[in-house]
What we know:
- It contains 8 helices and 7 strands; from the N terminus they run H-H-H-E-H-E-H-E-E-H-E-H-H-E-E.
- The protein is an alpha/beta fold.
- It has one domain: 3-Layer(aba) Sandwich (Rossmann fold), CATH 3.40.50.150.
- Helices cover about 35% and strands about 20% of the residues.
- A hairpin with a 2-residue loop joins strand 6 (about 215-225) and strand 7.
- It has a 7-stranded mixed β-sheet, with helices on both faces.
- The two termini are about 30 Å apart.
Amino acid sequence: MDTIAHHTPSYTTRRGELETYFDRTAVDAWARLTTDAPVSKIRATVRAGRDEMRAHLLSRLPADLSGRRILDAGCGTGAFSVEAARRGADVVAIDLSAKLVSIAAERLPRDLGKGSITFGVGDMLDAGFGRFDHVVAMDSLIYHPASDVVRCLKSLSDRTTASILFTFAPRTAMIAAMYGVGKLFPRADRSPAIVPLAAADLSRRIAHEPTLSNWHIADTRRITRGFYISQAMELACR
């Protein structure tokens, strides 16, 4: 993959940490979390929250996605990609973790209807993956500070024509007390620290970013299910 010139040191460092975490440390736990297998009460709330968030993001896309090209940025084990493909979308499903992408490919249903999924391992900001109608980044930007989140949105907007849907960890008293959702998990499979962001500050940064002047915040929704706390934001092209 090509190197993205505007990657910051913090983005590049965190990207490497996440690749190591999901490929070497937590792949089994995440593979189990994304099935119906029994999990702890804490992980059960995370599973329920992720399911609700995925449903919300899907609800913000057209019911018929035939002919639409979608980037699933940070596809994990592929649940979102499958649902989008079943609506007719041509999905490019990308993740830093080769092992999670392998699991997603193994779980791929035989019949996706008119849609399709192309899996890839790499950085969601790589322009080599092409242009898209919609980009969805569910819980894949939650490890980055606001400045890097905005830089990612700028990069994605250059090759997106309709909407960018992403999530971030909202700055709340509960998250501050937990020092990131990752601390709820055993030390052996704890993720790199999530970076809580103030929704108002992130919105202000987006509104004042000149390269995003053709985009506006069309929707935002916070989902809290036990130990899962995440906020969706939709940028729509004017």
